[in-house]
Design a protein that fits this description.
The model is unreliable at 1-28 and 725-756 (pLDDT under 50). Helices cover 30% and strands 24% of the residues. By secondary structure, the protein is of the alpha/beta class. It has four domains: 33-164, Sandwich (Immunoglobulin-like); 179-502, Alpha-Beta Barrel (7-stranded beta/alpha barrel), CATH 3.20.110; 503-573; 576-682, Immunoglobulins (Immunoglobulin-like).
């Protein structure tokens, strides 16, 4: 009985205890916290380095539940001895051989809470990394905790390579030959400029995110400032850097500096807020690039391979014209180097245009022996191909081997780890992974997402490796193609599949024809400093934004940007128009009265136009003046269209203004209302017909009367012949009679009769 009562009480107590739900992860497959490493000291362990590694960062709880007893430790794996081992250490969890004790980080971490983290791990001794010889070691930061209602588990981690040149108290061994090393600094963003300032129309950006990136603390500002701080002109690191600048970014920043509008989600326009930041950033970039290696990327980082394969060589040439913008003293005022860094480091056909003489290509895009990084001459071309170091590319860009390469900011987070991995990979290349006779070119992701401190740490580490004799910092090589062995291009299949699709390129080609047609139909005004290229080049550049590397594998985004460029082209074409007022009626009083028109040109260049007017029954409009009509820049041109109205009435005439050669339409077709009071040739025709009818009727009346007289005369004669002659009284009485017969009296009316 007591047992039954105890069981009943236990059941009731369990029913009264509220159930605690199991903790939900931040997302399936994701850790409930994020560890952001902001500093690693030292980044390169050498002779004279402190005896411990200090890792600083921030830990954020991204889950919906509290995490208790948060602890962390730093574990070490074996030194990497092969290039594949380095690649695995960059991507996979390393197999660790040391497991020091955990260090308490926090007793509890509430949802959304962020706390600072600082971990110290000795290099040698107990509870340390236990380093005994130089090498490149993978390290793992292991953070454990117990989410509410769950067991203890790993809640975050970070892994990176630590180059160890010398252990504490040991001597550093120098390689026989230092590895020549260069690095690109990409200054690239996403396309933002919907329309440049043309013909009085202000510049329009699709958003104002660039203003934050150009301001102090922003991504692009920090990249430039970090180079200025750590790699001054003439320094070893400074000589090894080469800025890879997108001319479209410079044009966008200049447009922002001069004042711009921002497109809102409801399609309205508001003033942008980044004019000051853009001006400051341009001055910082001008200072940082002064006296340095600078190369121009294709405009908007356009995919020149896709343009060439689509048969658009003029757009390829236009994309490569951005070098002139770098020479502009109002922008950078530098002389760019003859270098080409195509999208994904790949080329399909170098004959698509007059390309620079040196191309920086990935080894997979060249038919090279395995592991070779030596420059070659592209077969059949006067072009040198300098391979980009794939190991360093993987270290700098964690998204390189994914579909997101070149299309998004990289690294997406933890830029410090990317910089640290690059130092580890570079140290390995200079020691166990040397490639004789080659220069290791570090090519970061095009939209490099490093904080200023991350880049400073990378540049400081490169300087330390240079001083240690492992690497020799040199400019980006530009070898003479005539001195190099030949090799074939090998365009990767996956690179071709990510190109802008052909339908989008067809749409782009149609709009590019309009731009070229406008160019050949215009001319400079002597009194205006504006050249026609200043109107058409921004339109072409807008089309190139539709082929930016950011849209590879994203056809909808590419099509959207081509549509934006199309809108800008139409905005410019609408500046040439026939002046027309709604409800206006033109009256014609005579057969040859002309129609007055006024063509308005709000562009700063002179434009030649022709009229396209379809035939309208009842009226003929002559619109061929023996050649195009020239409309001056920012001016008006009155025109009289000879018109022949064939009848009276109301007519509707459609007037379209186009370019003379290609027939590109400027503004929309204007529908003119014409009212004619002229009868034309109808009145003489009716008069002639009426006169003929009158003459005919008169003749018929005369003939009818003549016939009537003849009939009556014949009738009277017949009657006289038929009656007998009776003697009169005079005859009877013997009186003499007149022998002359009396002329008969012909009746002309019914009441006018002959009487005896």
């Amino acid at each position: 009985m007591r047992f039954l009562l105890a069981a009943l009480v236990a059941v009731l107590l369990c029913a009264m205890v509220p159930l605690v739900p199991a903790p939900q992860a931040a997302a399936q497959g994701e850790s409930p916290t994020v560890l952001d490493v902001t500093k690693i000291t030292p980044s390169v362990v050498g002779a004279g380095s402190p005896g411990e590694v200090v890792i600083t960062g921030r830990l954020t709880n991204t889950s919906d539940h509290q995490i208790n007893n948060v602890e962390a430790r730093v574990q070490r794996g074996n030194a990497t001895t092969t290039e594949p081992a380095v690649q695995r250490a960059l991507r996979d969890d390393p197999a660790t051989v040391t497991e020091p004790a955990f260090t308490s980080v926090a007793d509890r971490l509430a949802p959304g809470q962020q706390i600072p983290v600082e971990l110290r791990i000795p290099l040698t001794g107990p509870n340390s990394l236990q380093l005994s010889q130089p090498g490149v070691y993978p390290l793992l930061v292991n953070v454990n905790g117990a989410p509410s209602g769950g067991g203890r588990a790993r809640i975050a981690q970070a892994q990176f390579l630590l180059p160890v040149l010398a252990t504490p108290g040991g001597e550093q061994a120098r390689p026989g030959q230092p590895t020549e090393t260069s690095m690109l600094v990409p200054i690239v963003d996403f396309p933002r400029l919907e329309r440049e300032a043309i013909g009085g129309m202000p510049a329009v950006l699709v958003d104002d995110q660039l203003s934050a990136s150009l301001a102090p603390g922003g991504r692009l500002y920090d990249l430039v400032q970090a180079v200025t701080d750590r790699a001054g002109p003439g320094s070893p690191v400074g000589n090894a850097l080469c800025f890879a600048v997108d001319p479209d970014l410079l044009i966008t920043a200049r447009a922002m500096k001069d004042g711009y509008l921002v497109r809102q989600p409801d399609n309205s326009l508001v003033e942008g807020i980044g004019a000051g930041a853009a001006g400051l950033w341009l001055s910082k970039l001008r200072e940082a690039t002064n006296g340095r290696c600078v190369m121009a990327l294709p405009y908007a980082d356009a995919d020149i391979v896709a343009l060439g394969r689509a048969g658009l060589p003029d757009l390829v040439k236009g994309a490569l014209d951005g070098a002139s913008l770098l020479r502009d003293p109002n922008i950078l005022g530098v002389e760019p180097r003859g270098l080409l860094w195509p999208v994904e480091g790949s080329l399909a056909d170098p004959a698509i245009a007059d390309l620079p003489r040196t191309a920086l290509l990935e080894p997979r895009a060249l038919n090279l022996p395995a592991g070779s990084l030596s420059p070659v001459r592209v077969r059949g071309q006067n072009m040198a191909a300098v391979p980009i170091d794939p190991l360093l590319t993987s270290a700098l860009d964690p998204l390189h081997d994914t579909e997101l390469k070149v299309t998004t900011l990289s690294p997406p987070q933890n830029g410090q780890l990317s910089a640290q991995n690059a130092l580890g990979a570079l140290a390995f290349r200079a020691t166990q992974g040397q490639v004789p006779g080659a220069t290791s070119v570090l090519a970061p992701p095009r939209r490099w997402n490093l904080r200023g401190d991350d880049l400073r740490a990378l540049l400081d580490g490169m300087q330390q490796l240079h001083e240690a004799g492992l690497i020799r910092l040199t400019p980006v090589p530009e070898p003479d193609p005539a001195t190099l062995p030949e090799a074939d291009l090998d365009y990767p299949v996956d690179a071709g599949s990510a190109e802008i699709p052909q339908p989008v390129l067809d749409q782009l080609a149609a709009q590019n024809f309009k731009v070229g047609d406008l160019y050949v139909s215009s001319q400079e005004e002597r009194s205006s400093p504006v050249q026609r290229g200043q109107v058409t080049t921004p339109l072409r550049n807008g089309l190139l934004r539709g082929t930016a590397s950011a849209w590879r594998g994203k056809p909808d985004a590419a099509r959207q940007w081509v549509d934006r460029a199309t809108g800008a082209i139409n905005d410019v074409l609408r500046q040439v128009r026939v002046e027309y007022f709604e409800g206006q009626v033109t009256r014609i009083d005579s057969a040859d009265s002309p129609i007055p028109l006024t063509v308005v040109n709000d562009l700063p260049i002179t434009v030649s136009v022709v009229f396209r007017i379809p035939q309208v029954p009842g009226v003929q409009v002559q619109h061929d003046f023996g050649g195009p009509v020239t409309v001056p820049a920012n001016g008006r041109r009155p025109v009289w269209l000879p018109t022949n109205a064939q009848r009276a009435g109301k007519f509707t005439i459609d007037v379209t203004v186009t370019t003379p050669q290609g027939g590109t339409q400027f503004d929309t077709t204007k529908r003119l209302q014409i009212e004619s009071t002229n009868y034309g040739s109808l009145i003489p025709m009716l008069t002639g017909i009426a006169a003929a009818v009158l003459v005919l009727m008169s003749a018929m009346r005369i003939i009818k009367r003549a016939l009537a007289r003849r009939r009556r005369a014949e009738t009277a004669a017949s009657a006289d012949a038929a009656e007998p002659v009776e003697p009169t009284d005079a005859a009877t009485n013997g009186a003499p009679q007149d022998s002359t017969p009396e002329a008969p009296h012909i009746a002309t009316t019914d009441g006018d009769r002959n009487r005896n």
